[in-house]
Automatic annotation (TrEMBL):
<dbReference type="GO" id="GO:0005886">
    <property type="term" value="C:plasma membrane"/>
</dbReference>
<keyword id="KW-0004">4Fe-4S</keyword>
<dbReference type="Pfam" id="PF11614">
    <property type="entry name" value="FixG_C"/>
</dbReference>
<dbReference type="Pfam" id="PF13746">
    <property type="entry name" value="Fer4_18"/>
</dbReference>
<dbReference type="GO" id="GO:0051539">
    <property type="term" value="F:4 iron, 4 sulfur cluster binding"/>
</dbReference>
<feature type="transmembrane region" description="Helical">
    <location>
        <begin position="66"/>
        <end position="87"/>
    </location>
</feature>
<dbReference type="InterPro" id="IPR017896">
    <property type="entry name" value="4Fe4S_Fe-S-bd"/>
</dbReference>
<dbReference type="InterPro" id="IPR051684">
    <property type="entry name" value="Electron_Trans/Redox"/>
</dbReference>
<feature type="domain" description="4Fe-4S ferredoxin-type">
    <location>
        <begin position="243"/>
        <end position="273"/>
    </location>
</feature>
<dbReference type="GO" id="GO:0046872">
    <property type="term" value="F:metal ion binding"/>
</dbReference>
<feature type="transmembrane region" description="Helical">
    <location>
        <begin position="323"/>
        <end position="342"/>
    </location>
</feature>
<feature type="transmembrane region" description="Helical">
    <location>
        <begin position="21"/>
        <end position="37"/>
    </location>
</feature>
<dbReference type="InterPro" id="IPR032879">
    <property type="entry name" value="FixG_C"/>
</dbReference>
<dbReference type="Pfam" id="PF12801">
    <property type="entry name" value="Fer4_5"/>
</dbReference>
<keyword id="KW-0408">Iron</keyword>
<dbReference type="InterPro" id="IPR013783">
    <property type="entry name" value="Ig-like_fold"/>
</dbReference>
<protein>
    <recommendedName>
        <fullName>4Fe-4S ferredoxin-type domain-containing protein</fullName>
    </recommendedName>
</protein>
Length: 465
């Protein structure tokens, strides 16, 4: 069985840590507050699988709109590939939920149990000190509260947030909400509190294949051996200077303080070269720069750079691989935009009812029955009317409906004809939806009006649009 030494991450401040902090606040705020924001009287983001309706800001989607999700996922994937090719695993270091939640849990651990050195000192000693036990219990309690808040918020994207709040007070939430929230809370506690870097090193699929997107011009965290080597501590450098010891090689900028290792969330030593386990978080840069500033030496011994730049060359952003990735991004954006612009606010389908035979009225009319499935994807209420624009046919049933935004209805339609029909005839249905401002949305379908030669119903499929 493989034994892992726990990594006690040292908490520091610095330029990249401030960037991550501001970005984390924005992401935390978006995640925790978005379910409580209402747009047009509805939750701004809600994936309602029970009613098969998905609300995203001002848009309403149904399962039939799966193509939006397809292009959206392709856009996200290609954009991540492009950014990785340019800036390495910057997503992992600055925006990945695993990294952001893990660093938040580490911050709580540091505030309650003490610094990384204190935690490392007590790691091998028995847990007998009452003060230490109390701090450990308090830490896990705070972690649990953070995990529960995360799990409850996650479920609020799939079950109305206000209903969750009321259900918690009255203890009458559906079992699925309890199970879903509990599982996500447990995974948050497990991944951010206990597993931490092991998720990035061994469980995340992105960390396994991201290296194929790197090339010599990819900008990533790197140590400059030309400036840092050979390493000598300040004490060794002072002795050399005081004794005027002559060496074949002058001391480099690195004083071998190991601060870059102490702050690394994945426990690597960046001075050993670029490694697949590096998540490009920039913490080692902040640590090294702070040490260099304290001893009066120039910074950027560790920095965001490329292998080409370290070798003395000049990196280029425009290169075949990056151009290919961004071309795919633009193509996905174009297709997603085109699909969104050309989509209608109303979604209709008309199917001839198979379980109802052709009927004849007392006046001699022949009728066919249809089922209109109508979805209002707009935010406002629409007044719908259905018309038949084929000569010789007319609707003799109720063909009107008032439908609120994001709702759907099934409307039976009966079409009659005075003609002596035999066989199958196309019938054009026009569905019009009008909002309060008088704006008209229109959708057209072609159905079949069917009478067999012997006067019985003919077997047909759904109407084609």
């Amino acid at each position: 069985m493989i034994k892992y030494d726990k990594i006690h991450v040292r908490v520091i401040s610095g330029y990249y840590q401030r960037i991550r902090g501001y970005l984390a606040l924005a992401l935390y705020g978006t995640f925790f507050l978005l379910p409580w924001v209402d747009i047009a009287g509805r939750q701004s983001v809600l994936f309602d699988f029970v009613h098969q309706k998905f609300f995203i800001l001002n848009a309403v989607f149904f399962p039939k709109d799966l193509l939006f999700l397809t292009w959206g996922l392709m856009l996200g994937a290609f954009f991540l590939f492009a950014i990785t090719n340019i800036l390495g695993r910057v997503w992992c270091g600055f925006a990945c939920p695993q990294t952001i939640w893990t660093l938040a849990f580490i911050w709580v651990e540091n505030k309650i149990e003490g610094s990384a050195n204190t935690r490392a000192k007590w790691q091998s000693k028995p847990l007998r000190d009452p003060n230490r036990v109390a701090r450990r219990v308090l830490k896990h309690l705070v972690w649990a509260l953070m995990a529960i808040a995360t799990g409850a918020t996650f479920v609020a994207y799939f079950y109305p947030a206000k209903a969750i709040y009321d259900g918690l007070i009255n203890a009458n939430l559906p079992m699925g909400v309890w199970v879903g929230g509990g599982i996500f809370a447990y995974l948050t506690y497990l991944n951010a509190g206990l597993l931490r870097e092991k998720v990035c090193l061994h469980m995340c699929p992105y960390s396994r294949f991201q290296s194929v997107m790197y090339d010599a011009d990819t900008i990533a965290v790197a140590y400059d051996p030309a400036v840092g080597e050979p390493r000598r501590s300040l004490k060794q450098s002072s002795k050399q200077a005081s004794k005027q010891v002559q060496t074949n090689q002058a001391a480099g900028g690195c004083i071998d303080c190991s601060m870059c290792v102490q702050v690394c969330p994945t426990g690597i030593d960046i001075r050993e070269g670029s490694q697949i386990d590096c998540i490009n978080c920039g913490l080692c840069i902040d640590a090294c720069d702070s040490v260099m500033a304290s001893i009066g030496r120039p910074p950027e011994l560790i920095r965001f750079t490329s292998q080409t730049a370290l070798a003395g060359g000049k990196s280029s952003v425009l290169r075949p691989r990056s151009v290919g990735y961004f071309s795919a991004v633009f193509a996905a954006v174009f297709m997603l935009t085109l699909h969104f612009v050309t989509s209608s606010d109303i979604d209709t389908s008309i199917v001839r009812e198979r379980d109802r035979i052709v009927r004849y009225t007392a006046s001699g009319d022949v009728t066919n029955a249809y089922l209109l499935k109508l979805k209002n994807k707009a935010q406002e209420t629409l007044q719908f009317d259905v018309e038949v624009e084929s000569e010789g046919f007319r609707i003799i049933s109720n063909a009107h409906a008032s439908l609120p935004g994001g709702e759907r209805v099934e409307l039976p339609i009966v079409v009659a004809s005075t003609e002596q029909l035999r066989g199958s005839y196309p019938v054009q249905f026009v569905v019009k939806g009008v909002d309060a401002a008088g704006t008209v949305r229109e959708d057209v379908h072609v159905g079949r009006f069917v009478i067999a030669d012997d006067g019985t119903i003919a077997a047909i499929g759904p109407a084609q649009r």
